[in-house]
Write a structure and sequence with these properties.
Number of helices: 4
Largest sheet: 5 strands, mixed, barrel
Number of domains: 3
Low-confidence stretches: 55-78
Radius of gyration: 39 Å
Helix content: 25-40%
Strand content: 25-35%
Shape: elongated
Number of strands: 16
Distance between the termini: 42 Å
Order of helices and strands: HEEEEEEEEEHEEEEHEEHE
Strand order of the largest sheet: 2-6-7-12-11
């Protein structure tokens, strides 16, 4: 069986297109879910959070004290709700503020990510760039949001901000340290298939006093304190956002991503459809050519078997094959219609890359048995 390089190339292109389509479709679904959740979030001013009441504890009767497993009371509608607030970052305890490595920035969430950047020789023997996280140090102190402009003492605490699905942090340092160059290190890396280019360290922080938009589940405790957290297990479809963008900008960002994903899906879907069409057309063409070749081989074989010796079938010179000038003309070539070849010469022409009529040089598409009298 001959190796069909064109078929392998088309299959590789179709598989790559399918991977890209799957990634785009997953991104489209994720962004669409985020947009739906953001539209369902209730935009509330921090100063107005006091209107949400905490769940009231009911007085238990003397009989309920004797019950080992009392039935828990259901939370009121104000105790758990999906809201969007925007305010200024403020630590709960000023003495526990986090500092950047250069001591110039302070904040409530601090993260340092160290990556190794190297060029790696993959399975196809090409060198590609690869990143690997070697250290990820992150810290968070209790913090809250206060109203932007008003002097209200109302605030809302943020619980576990590092678990946010969308977390925007300010980059305060981005350093790249190149690896030391030496011939022995280069030779060892070339043999091992991995050349270290250097390390990159990125330091991010949510600064004190910056404006942050928080979208999550608002929980009101019985003592009146409030905090925003990642939605509980019953509301897992709602994401947790901590962004430095206003709500409308955050929503428009995901809407733009959805639009880009939609047009990209259409583009790569069209490319995949074209590749499928080409593969099907080429397979049908190859099938037709195999059938045609089998039919032509049968015709030429029958002509060779039924051929009479030249001395038993004397013909004029004008009836001889124009190539060998020995055998009689037995084959008509189409579409030009010239009767000019014997079966032996037609077999030789079939072995060439292009089949052309020896009289007019037109490409031969098909052949048929010729009857010359």
């Amino acid at each position: 069986m001959d190796f069909d390089f064109e078929f392998v190339l088309e299959g590789f292109a179709l598989g790559l297109d399918g991977i890209v389509l799957g990634f785009l479709f997953k991104s489209y679904e994720s962004c669409s879910a985020y947009i739906e959740a953001l539209k369902e979030a209730e935009q509330v001013d921090i100063a107005d959070l006091g209107q949400f009441s905490a769940p009231k504890s009911r007085n238990r009767s003397w009989f309920q004290f004797w019950k080992s497993n009392p039935t828990p009371s259901k939370d009121t509608s104000d105790s758990h709700r999906y809201v969007c607030v925007r305010g200024r970052v403020e630590p709960v305890d000023n003495s526990k503020l986090l500092q950047s490595n250069d001591k110039l920035s302070t904040g409530v969430i601090h993260r340092v990510v160290t990556k190794e950047i190297a060029t790696v020789r993959n399975g196809s023997r090409f060198w590609v760039e690869e990143e690997r996280v070697v250290k990820n140090v992150q810290h968070e102190v209790p913090w809250r949001l206060r109203p932007e402009e008003t002097r209200s003492k109302q605030s809302v605490q943020i619980s576990d901000g590092l678990s946010a699905d969308h977390l925007d942090m300010t980059v305060v340092r981005d350093e790249f340290t190149p690896a030391p160059l030496s011939f022995s290190a280069w030779l060892g890396g070339w043999v091992a298939g991995q050349q270290l280019k250097g390390t990159q360290e990125v330091e991010e922080i949510i600064m004190e006093g910056s404006l942050v938009t928080a979208v999550g589940e608002l929980v009101v405790n019985s003592d009146g304190t409030m905090y925003i957290r990642s939605p509980s297990s019953c509301n897992q479809r709602f994401p947790f956002f901590l962004s430095n963008m206003p709500f409308n900008d955050l929503l428009s960002t995901y809407e733009n991503l959805v639009s880009v994903c939609k047009w990209s899906i259409l583009l790569f879907g069209g490319v995949g459809a074209v590749i499928c069409y080409l593969m099907i057309r080429n397979r049908l063409r190859q099938r037709y050519n195999r059938r045609r070749t089998t039919s032509e081989d049968d015709i030429l074989r029958q002509l060779q078997q039924s051929r009479l010796p030249p001395d038993e079938n004397p013909q004029g010179d004008w009836q001889r094959c124009v190539v060998c000038l020995t055998n009689n003309r037995e084959v008509i070539v189409l579409p030009c219609g010239h009767v000019c070849l014997c079966a032996d010469c037609m077999i030789l022409i079939n072995q060439q890359e292009q089949r052309n009529c020896p009289v007019c040089r037109q490409q031969i598409v098909n052949i048929a048995r010729a009857f010359v009298s």
